[in-house]
User: Fold these one by one.
Assistant:
Number 1:
Amino acid sequence: MRILISISALAGLLFINACSVNKAKINDQLKKYFDAKNVDGCFTMFNNKDGSVMVYNMKMDTMRFTPASSFKIVNSLIALETGIAPNDSLVIPWDGIKRNRAEWNKNMNMREAFKTSNVPYYQEIARRIGADTMKRWIDSLGYGNQNISGQIDSFWLNNSLKISPDEQLGLMKRLYFDQLPFRKSTMETVRNMMIQEENTLYKLSYKTGWGFDEQKNNIGWVVGYIEENRHVYFFVTLIKSPEPTIDMAKVRMDITKDILKELGFFLGKM
């Protein structure tokens, strides 16, 4: 298992965020999309073509929140790199407990579990990785506050581990360009699992997340990138709402796609 990395590699990876918020262009015009859904939030994008950063709501962009299921990106990378999962076809049998998400109630491989954001599957993955190995990798990545205290199968859900949108953006950039301390094949596998839409105009890749902070606010994520006209743009949407009946799955994607449309994406011209 590849757990240890060189000191030089570690030094280059201690700080995961790739973008300087001090140089970011503030775009307050995006506020209307969050207001339309009665939620608070932020959006940040890194344009790899010219190195520019655009942010709506800088304050939230640099605050840390529970990663919720967006942590499945890193959970998958560690499982694949250490051999806990030989590949993305690893099947974990259903434990027989019926859950509200009916699609989780069956045997499932990693690709399916990633797409359906299957929490029990990835909780079992974390248990198999173990606390010591998980901690080494979280530290080597410099992931958020690097706190995995509590149960090994819930630290990314219970507000122990936290990460900012800016740090998530840096993670996406490093994953895309094979700059994380994993084998290229490992990163390629996870990138392939992240692909959600692909056609002749664009390719959209992301992972979502939905959790709760200490005040029981809904925390929603869309973390990924869009490739268009041979250029890549990394983005993160974060949503915060106290509304207990919010349809977060819909709201987070509506806001993300509305913003991407406003910025000119989906037409193959960016």
Number 2:
Amino acid sequence: MNRLQEGDKAPNFTLPNEHGEPTSLASLLEKGRVLLYFYPKAMTPGCTVQAQNLRDQKQALAEKNTIAVGVSIDAPKRLAKFIERDELNFTLLGDEDHAVAEAFGVWGLKKFMGREYDGIHRISFLIEQDGTISKVFDKFKTKDHHEVVLAAL
């Protein structure tokens, strides 16, 4: 895993959103800074808590000219269910072939309950409107991710 760092340019990409519509990083950056957060799987306990807290802090993020955008390897149909079930108020993107996760350096070996597998590491990037990564969040618990982000903003 060769993760992108603060000061690096974020690679532009286009992924399907929860409606299957192509969504590019460039189009998201037109709305403000982007908190691009990578999470392992929609509708799992930790990912749900993280998403709900970001949902509840949408206004606080907006006041800092920042939008949250989640990326997982889930298909758009599952992302749509996640948004509906948890009343999420931000975009989710499906990186089914994990190419974007690899480009950001968040795809790699994970260990869980004694087994090893490749997957997405829970890491977030704050991307400025010029495409520069200004902050990398990799040390947080899912329940306080939003607090760490807001404190940095």
Number 3:
Amino acid sequence: MRALLDLVLPARCAGCGDPAGPGCPGCLRALSGPARWTRPDPCPAGLPPVATVAAYGGPVRGLLIGYKEHGVSGLARPLGGALARSLLLARGPGAGAVVVVPVPSSGRQCRRRGADVVVEIAARAVRELRALGHRVQLVRALRHVRAVADSAGLGAHARVANVVGALAVRRGAGPLVAGRTVVLVDDLVTTGVSLAESARVLRAASATVLAAATIAATTRRAHAPGVAAAGLGSPAAQQRGWGLRC
């Protein structure tokens, strides 16, 4: 269905509206940079180090919305490529086998969009990494156990209340994550509460949550001059607050 929409709708860039769609070279350039570490401020308890590629705004926001909400399937490749670079940073050099667990979309979101788009992008990123010889495995280990509200427009405290206790391990998925090294994935990190809650549930299932990977991060505060360049490249640096602030 998503691919069919691309055939019947005008191929305009989801980032800027240019006729050279679904993503023009200028807008796609915003997804082509290296992955770096980020963290929300304030940072929720239990949040693992988070790798990301781009700030959520401008063309990146348009590209993500185009794929997620408007079914522009032609954006799957560049978005999956960006997430793959983020995953590589999150798993670290020389890592062994890693289980990639997507943060699940709500049932309402899946019905509206026709798919769990985070799972789709994660699957593409994992295929790309496996083709390069990396030992990564996608496991849909998490599910919603109660309804959650749309987080858009919610404040920080409301976002926490919205997700706490909303997730559980899928039936049969426990043995696939117990004792395994896990990297969480999501398309976007804002407050970090969804990633923190996902990590809490997986740790309770005896998984080791190494880090999280996203495509974009909501920017809330700019870097101090010179700090970002010094701090990119390690979870320890991320924990000191260097990298893209979100």
Number 4:
Amino acid sequence: MNPKPKSTRSASGQDDESSWRYPGWRVVAICFLVELFIFGFGLYGHGVFLTELQHLQGWPTALISSASTLSFLLGNLLAPFTSDALHWVGPRRLMLFGISALGTSTTLLAFTATPWQLYTAYILMAFGWAGMGTVVVATILRSWFDRRSGLAISLAFNGATCGGIIVAPALVLLIGEVGFKLAMLAMTVIMIAILVPAVMSLPLADSASERRAENAPPRGNPMSPSLSRWPLLQSFGFWTITAPFALALSAQVGFIVHQIAFLEPTMGRSDAAIAVSVTTTMAVIGRLCLGMIVDRLEPRRTTAISLATQAGALLVIVLAPDSRTLFLACAVYGFSIGNLITLPALIIQREFDAATFGMVLGLSTAIGGMVSALGPGLMGLMQSATGGYDAALVLCLILKLVAAAIVLLRPRRRR
């Protein structure tokens, strides 16, 4: 009798992705940790940095927030080239590069005393996104999973939400105990101590490709780009994915940034803060729940339903007369927040060849990120123009419904 291979296989000889002994799930765990820290520092940490640097340096909000904007814009500009970087240097080296860039950024922030140091730190953080962001993680997981890719991506991306629940609050607590400089250095050391050994143990993407080739027809390496970007930008199918998620995420980012401001008049500041926690918690729960079944669902239809429920929640928030109803509406809205990050990768996986996955996701993410960055400013302008948030929330509702309609447009399958 032949010895049992290391990877778990089904009776048909295919790798059994449903078994927790399958090595791809170790990749998921590593990607979860990577997302935990890049989102904890690179997204949720921005509010902490802004407050502390204002206090320590006396810098105006515009100076610090413009550095944040530069970091996000540069990160999105780098996203379309992630697939090229993965192809040329491999996932381990690219992730280690991202960890190095992020660690250097947070260390520089601990010692920053001049605007040029501040901007340098935020530029380095953008390179951290390039090596650790969602495009990298989704592309790596795409090389390991077919049938359970939805669950794998959902679990890994929950690290992003947990970054706001774990890393940012821990940073705030440490600052209160030892000050900004020592807190930043301590959290940076913790990040490096956790991520470097984890990433060094990451199974090679080539082994995943070889593993698939043993028993399945070749489908291409998702880390090897084979489609130029210009024809992709002329593709109707590409825009029926990119446009709706760009619109939906623009509304979503605006909602998150302004949530306390539009809830406070009805609920008070403390309850509004609790509502934010409810929204974030439901984002984790929603991603887990959908992840368990999403591989059996049609992702475009699932996206439309998620957007419609968020639109309904926005309508309730506009009309809600009491705090209890607002809590419920925020919970419903939050349930789909994380899924709108997961679903684009699943649609692209089904409608584009594996060899183009990283490029398509990177370009789509870059465009969506650029558009979504306009959301907070647009809501702020409408609030200033109308004297309240109702019109801004109605605009977000309309954007959600338009996005739901566009995503249901079905191009011919590419494969």
